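Supplementary Text 2. Reproducibility record for the structural model of the 108-residue chain.

All settings were left at their defaults, and a single model was retained for analysis rather than an ensemble. We include the record here because the model underlies the residue-level annotations in Supplementary Table 4.
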Amino acid sequence: MTINNKDSHLHLKFENTDRTLDADLLPLKFSSDLILDLSSFETIDKAHLSSLNQINQDIINSGFCLVIVLKESLPIISTESLNIVPTLIEAEDYLKMEQIQRDLGTSL
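Retained model, structure tokens:
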């Protein structure tokens, strides 16, 4: 896992060979928006999806936003509560929009 602490968010890039997501992320407490870059993943299994949903809920409860970068070609079910985009640029744009909405006191 590669960690980049940006001005407005935290960017974590996982490699397909990294351990499970929950072992690396669930113990963490987030104090900013988060981009999880899983673009190197060839598959996402139910355990990954469960971890992503739990991490997403933890971040929402902290008042922040999670955006996941995933290949468009990966078939995933039950992702309606997750913010998934195909590129890092789109993830950063999504976070900017979320931050603007928070600043204005509005939400989607």
